[in-house]
## 1
Amino acid sequence: METESVGVQTQGGRARSPGPPETPGVALSGCQGEAKHTGRMPESDPAILLRGVDFSYDGGNRVLKKISLEVAGGERVFILGRNGSGKSTLVKILGALQSPSQGACFICGIDASDAAVHGKVSVVFQNPESQIVGAVVEDDVAFAPENQGLPSPEIEKRVSWALEKVGLLHKRSALSSALSGGEKQRLALAGALAAGSVCLILDEPVAMLDSEGRVEVENVLRDIHASGTTIVQVTHRLEDVFEADRVLVLSRGMWAWQGRGEDFWDVAESLGFELPPLVVLGRRLSRKGVPLSLCHRSSQTFAQNVVHAILDSLSPPGQGGVDEPPRSPRSSEREEAADAGPPPSPFFEVRRLHYSFNVSTPLETKVLSDVSCIVPAGTWLSVLGRTGSGKSTLIQHLNGICRIQSGEILIGGQALPQSGSELRDLRRRVGLVFQSPEVQLFSPTVREELAFAPKNWGCPEEEIDARVERALESVGLDMGYLERNPLLLSGGERRLVAIASILSADPGCLVLDEPTAGLDASFRKRIKELLQGLRRAGKTVVTVTHDLDMALEHSDRLLVLDRGVRMCEGSIRATLPALLEMEASMLPEILQVSGMLWRHGVKAPLTWNVEELCRGLGL
Amino acid sequence: MAFTPIAMGQYVPLKSPVHQLDPRAKLFLLVAVLFAVFPSNDFPSLALCTLALFGTVKLARLPGGMLVRSCRPVLFLALFTFVFNLLAGWGGGGFSALLHALGTAFLAVNRLLLLVFWAVLLPLTTAPLELADGMEALLSPFRRFGFPAHECAMMMSVALRFIPLLTEEADRIVKAQVSRGARLDQGNLVQRAIAFFPVLIPLFVIIFRRAEELALAMEARGYRGGVGRTRRSPLVWKKSDTGATIFVMLAICAFALFRMFVLHGATP
């Protein structure tokens, strides 16, 4: 049944050639000639075939246990699994970069140990930085076809074709280091296409991108898949399931579940996944008898369908469609607390801040212009905006790492010190956690790592141990970690240790740049709880984030920057309507839905919270 | 990302006669120019070399500020050389000794900067992979002695490609450690060296991890060393390359003769 439906789909896709364009007159040698025709390989030959694959790095510990998988040509398969489930190893085996300890792997009917498979299967990894070989875009795309020994005119054709496919043709002679994250991942995809691959293996290709980059890459992937390429994608994001022909859940090296994308939602919770809010809303609607299918090609179209379904169900006159100005988004206790009584004294007050890079050179770039904001003591401010909007520069001012060029910043009513011992004291009072802080770890043990900051600030020896233990406890790690080597911990644990290494100096304010980026759901949750705990303990928290869910759910105030200019600032409630001006794909799905309903004048609260929206809609 | 200051020796993609010159010619001519600049220690010779540098930069359409900026780390060294030469030459003598020392110090710095600027012109005007191709071609005669010409050239080009990335990472780690109270600018040399460990260790960890990831990514794209590899745009030696090479070599010879006969009064 399943293979049948896949077959129909692939045939439609193959109307266009999945491989690079045919180039009559150019003689092709060996495997490349075959690679060009694999798009029309016999239906009987699966694109990917794993049979009883076992893998172990040390001979004992089995990372993969008797894994079998058959992927038909043109299918789009998603593999879900937690950290440590064996996903990365599976990716290497599928990409013919690692031979299984036992079992066999065939790509388009070719054994993966044969060098010829590299013209058929390509892998794109998570980190866009470390898979680009060429300093110039077109040089990088040419790398794989050059390795295959193709003639120059053929390479040139493939480069142009692949760059056009990912929409980077206009940047072909740009420096690859000057591309945005999303563009770098598109470049990596172009490199894979230029190799002539008909199977793409993707290892969380959007995990390290901002929402804009993610949308870019997702669109390109949709397009690549539509032209017949087989895609196997490992992912953390449940929203991806909307795009899947088939979903497989990997757990401890074995398949825990496999089936069609739309069937996944019924079992997701029993497999330990938390349902995306949009799916929760969809199911409540279905239960109320609103006709709604969970079969959709993207979460975007699903969100639109949900809105239409709600509007249709409200259509009988008198039910909704009231044109009174919508009001009253969510009011929660923390906002009431923030609004009631005299406002707390500001911890930071930023006034008319300007900043430029490469001042007074032809390369001068404005980063911040005329930015003002207030951070009341004991509250949590989220700074939002696209990449390059000046968020990181703004927060690096707060502990004096960036010198003020023009404007002023007050801390506790005093001008922010810019030099001398007062500046050092400022850095102790305001802890700054950089993006992926885990890379700054350097000590042989966690204990020494956490003692680094208090020692630097001249904390008395006898106090240090207590501080180290308190800091470790506050990030939720037990004392067993003290003697462990920070470099050998998992990525999420390393980040917690890095945050603890700032907390051990006991700062009154913690400033974090993208604290949840690149973490899986369980560690994201731990970071959120940690920051909430700090705020409850009376600390001031400032985060720069792309995680709008976290910003809306947990922080008190928002500051939205766009190209260095303040778009809006204030309590969540006050800024919510302004947020809707942002591109819809960047907003949390529930806020998209609620925003669209709001615009249609439906009497429902403007909110990001699924429970509240359901209550408002009487579901 | 677009905001990062230019890293040392980072390629500037422009279209100019210097950019279009064959990398083999550029490598060869650079060596010749460095040989000409190195022995120059008088005002007229250095003035000529400086003029030639300005001419080449103009021809390469590089903004002068960009060249200086991309050599920023060396400017401190230049300043140090200047002060050192000045003090050593002066030795507490009179005004004329100071004047003389000033002259020597100026020449020393001028020569140092000329060498650096000429050398940095090569990576600024040549894409790393092209540079690697050129280097591989020039080194290939040594292959018969078992010298890994392709591998060396590929390593060079990958290293060049990683410079901007590592500059960025280093900058971030320095800021992060300073935020944790690290004092990188105090104490004697030993103390400073020790204070730099918190920067160096993470940087090395990053380099190792990146190297591992990149090696895997290269393998995934079918890289198996130089054997059987072709080029998107193979190096083609043009007439203009021959012309430019002959012209520069003649100019260097003229320069050498000028130094030998006019400045040093040698008689034929």
## 2
Amino acid sequence: MTRMNLDRRGFLAVAAGAALAGVAQPARAAVTDDTLNQLAASAARAGSILWYESSPRDQIDRVIAAFTQRFPAVRLEHVRDTGGNAMAGRVIQEVQGNTRTCDVGTNSASVIWQLVGRNMVERVDWAARGADARLAPTPFTLLTTASTYVILSNSRMVSDADAPRTWEDLANPRWREKFGTWIRSEGLTSLAAVWGEDRVARYIEQLNAQRPFLFKSTFPLAQQLAAGEVAVALGIYHTAQPPIRRGAPIRVTVPDPAAISSLFSFLPTAGRNKDGGLLLALWLATPGGAQAYEQATGRGNYLIEGTETARLLAGRTVAEFTPDQTERMLPILTRFNNMLQNGGGREVD
Amino acid sequence: MRTIEALPAQSAAPGEVKRPIAWARWLPAIGAGAVLAYLVLVPLLLMLVSSLRPGGFPLDPGWTFANYATVYGAAGFPRLVGTTIAFAIGSTALALALGIALAWLIERTDLPLRGTIRALVILPMATPPILLAIGWAMLLSPRTGFFNLLIRDVFGLAQSPFNVFSLGGMIFVEGLSLVPTTFLFLSPAFRNMDPSLEEAAITSGAGIGMLLRRILLPMLWPSILAAGAFLLIVCLVVFDIPGTLGMPARIFVLSTQIYYLAVDSPTGVPLYGQVSALAAFFLCILFVLGWAYHRLTRQAQRYRTITGKGFRPRLMRLGGWRWVAFAGVSAYFLLAVVAPLAILFWTSLMPYQTRVTWAALDLVTLDNHIDFFANRRVLEAAGNSLTVALVAATAVALISVVLAWLVVRAKIPGARLLDGLAFAPVAMPGVMLGVALVYVYLTLDLGFAVYGTIWIIAIAYVTHYVSFGTRLANGVMVQLHPELEEAGAASGASTVRVLRRITLPLIWPAVVAIWIWVVAHALRELSTALMLQGRGNVVVPTLLWDYWSGGEPNRAAAVGVWLVVALVIFLSLWQAVARSRLERSS
């Protein structure tokens, strides 16, 4: 691994040509056991691996157990990121304060893009390590998991026949004041990668006419759907799983195109155990690692065969901006966020 | 004010504690200033620097005013400020009205079951605000809210009468949630009042309204003002209730905007520069409030109610109003304490969030409570939480009493500056306090690790809560006439002995109130703990957050229930110790 001075343009240049949007198909190339075992040997000598990631601790305990079973000599420690942009803030402060930061982090392209802009992310030749090009759309990011946007309905309040199944169904006026969604527009922004910005903007105006309940997270959205406060919702698959697992009357439908928000693993340049960070990132992109992660957290890698997410998205068009399109995506996200928050389709400066 | 001017205190010489020689008078100011500079000034300066950095991180290169231009030039800013001020003033007014009434009834009258009510009234403080907001959403939401459904069934209404997802709903819930704090602010002041003034007024034929207007409120003005200023700033900064109840209905306030800028902005990095620029607005309001407070209370002798003239705390007889007052307090108690705690308990027994119905009783499970105790981190987190809470509470109580004495009584040089510094942290958003402390302890080599340990959380709490402690201690210190301390000094007692034997016992109710308030808040505080979390400093609220953010509000509610139980045990122990002390001394 070599440290490079990269600006935003450089980041985009090396990332050019990578594209995730398209019909979901599993990745082909695979990381070999030899590669992982060699990395494990040197990672064990370098001490523990420090991982910043946003899942609850008891979920990641299960991932750590699976990792330790596979690599008994390597110690993996997890610090929970509180979500949103917090991880970028933490890494920047730790690097500026010259203290230990994570060896590997998992987050969205927009967060990693900020760190790349500050020369804080390692450039890795993922292909040389056996990773499929579709898993590694840029030298800085390796796909680990994705949030899948789904249509949810309360099965006690909405019959099977009436349940919305398509994006257009959600805009049906029958759901006026009975519809809830996340206050952020990541899913709708991803949809714009397939539908185009203007079509999605018109669609948001239709949704706003429903007078939706806006939630600051999709977790309480799913709970309020279970409680009956809203009858239908645009939510995220894995955040609906906790109440579903406990018997809540929630029905899930994956629309086509399927909007997703991917999370990638990245290696900070200031990480101490670089081989350890690389080991974890690559292991999470193997069938064993991806399934362990998905079983623990409920969200998975749709490009890895055998995952529930791959089955969920099979045959559907996957809608998402690629990491190299971050610069183009951010203004759309801002515009859509404003449209949702302001309601009625009128945008706020 | 005329009633108060009749006090003997008014005729007493406005003597203060004996002045030491000139240069020595600066020593306490330097000492207190050093402590406050370390705790408050450094984070404040880092926040200011952050607001002037293009990248928003204090160690980033370059300077700019762009953050101020972006924040204050935004088209929606005036509307945001208007909504925020309406929310803050409404919530503060409600909390003050209820808090004053409760403090007077509990401390000054023969209200039945006063002791029990006093202990229970502060219980909601142990409930994390996020759970309180969810609880109220379950009680008053238009479609599934328990009270709405009940009223609709009883009166056969087609529409729900209440909608908690509204500005009125936000004010109602925030106001109720701040009543325990208001009560703790005011109860020591009420307890310290000489009852002869009330008795004289009643003997002269004054009714309860006149008594409140002409005697109680003017006399308690410093404490009420201090409480009001504190609550107002808290309402400007608070996020949980506006975030949970306002967002679904698109009602945004400044704290919602701060959350968006710090966590959710689509830039991929927290916009700390803009957060700090917004926080400067809170600081300006805070300084205006501080200035107004000093203007309004500058004639401190008017408010002195604890004088050399002996008095025994006597209770006012309410007569026929006794049971009316009890019914009113019970109604408040049911609404503000029993209902949210009951819904919290109900949620903790459900597998997922569900409305309160007979049919839902079939779903009752203890799994959430069992999971909590089966969590291998519970013992570690409970130990950490308790350590942090006790250390922070003791430090805040100590610092607050010393600062109040220096500022109000000793009137050391720079007293107002020190007082302003002590008040300032309440205007700092938790996220910016966290950012500042991370920098402080990443760059400061103390010889031992602070970053990533429980001590950085404890320091953050001391910094944040010293504003509450000093407001409360100042309010009570103003009531204390110096003639008692002067009598002690005249009898040959040293300053320390006077403080220990006279001042401290007289302000002890305030010290205890500060201590309990800080313990309760430190046990439940989340945003700073999350910001400062590392590998070895898990606390109970971060466990709660794990459940909450993992989509398990029912497990989070179970943690909330056990936090309330912990506070009940804590308060019971404290009351038992206080009772045995009282018995021994009598």
## 3
Amino acid sequence: MNAILKTSDNDNVVTCLRSLYKGDEIVADGITFIVKEDIPQFHKMAIKDIKKGSPVFKYGQVIGLATRDINSGDYAHVHNIESTRGRGDKQEAIK
Amino acid sequence: MKITGYKRENKTFGIRNHLLVIPASVCASETAIKIANLVPGAVAIPHQHGCCQVGVDYRQTVRTLTGFGCNPNVGAVLIVGLGCEGINSKDMAEDIAKTGKRVEYIIIQENNGTLGTISKGAEILSSMSAELSAQQKVEFDISEIILGLECGGSDPTSGIASNPAIGKASDMLVSAGGSSILSETTEVIGAEHLLVHRFDTEEKKKKFLRMVSDVEKRAVAMGEDLRGTQPTPGNIQGGLTTIEEKSLGCMHKAGTMYNFKDALEYAQMVPKEKKGLYFMDTPGEDIDSITGMVAGGAQIVVFTTGRGTPTGCPIAPVIKITGNTNTYNMMKDNIDINAGKIITDGATLDDIGREIFDKIIEVSNGKLTKAEVLGHKEFGIYRIGYTF
């Protein structure tokens, strides 16, 4: 079983198919990544540096924006990604 | 491909032969339950609605209850009304009777209250039960099947394994001439730009996009971040971060081979003469969503769940599939198929898609799902207005 799953070529996050631990070495697209923090099974890891405010891609589609700089190997979840949809707390969000 | 089931007068086919007791309103719900409890095999659908509703919300409740009565899995119907509620029991009985099945109604205020109504109701129900027991199953073509597609308690395995796998099964059913319904408008938010291309006319595209934007506007109008509920706390704990991510995984339930014939309103009947893949405007909440699809004519539902959920339906078998092997091992009482083998054992989407399709056939032929064995019969009507 692979440790990670990348769903599309231009994704900048991958799904961890097993729990990953800080210091693990993971190979994706021929590049070795050092896992920077523990990541639970099926949660996401960044495989590229993502600047604050930039889109996060999974399935080749935008799943949200980075709320702070995310580095390759970081755990990527609600602490550093936010949705752009259904944001009644930000009234301008609706199209 | 042939399966066996119950032929109805209106040339639809049921895969179960339920005796249904419909309360016209919340005021008749308890009495309806008591009547159903007296006759083995009868099932009541208690609910909180049916009175002091207006407009589209009222009509949606009527459509849902009527749709349940019309569903081909139901052999006969008893409606229990209080007598003064908004929903008229006689009118509903006449609408359901157009299917050709036996339908009767009874009014609490006209039958000496609870006990008189129970007595008379149980008498009607027991004669219906005897009639249903004499009905023979007949062979019919699989193209008569309408499949509801549902996901709930999702986690990232749903988008990777179980949803694409039921998408395969849905494609197989539609290829065989059957129908399938993608639901849960909330879980289209963030994926509508991909799905909209699968509607063939500008009018249908606009209708579909309006359904999605109406749901999003409702959340925004409340001044809240939808993330308070979508994704749910369990979705987030499982590893789903945003509604967009959840939606992009949910849309795989619709398979890849077919375009949508149309976008249906909640509980709107799937057209018998125009089989194929449909979208239905239901909420992300599982029970209300399944109720809408079954009211629209679905005889069977496939339901993917990464976190695990026990829920069923009063009149339609619900097949549970998880993409998470841990969940399968934890909730074997509730889960019928482990699509987690795609992740853990190298099974292919085609393998699991075929396993799900074979299970749909087996269950259609009469085998009980785990939700049926355990008596799960959750029922909920999607409200789109206020109670006055």
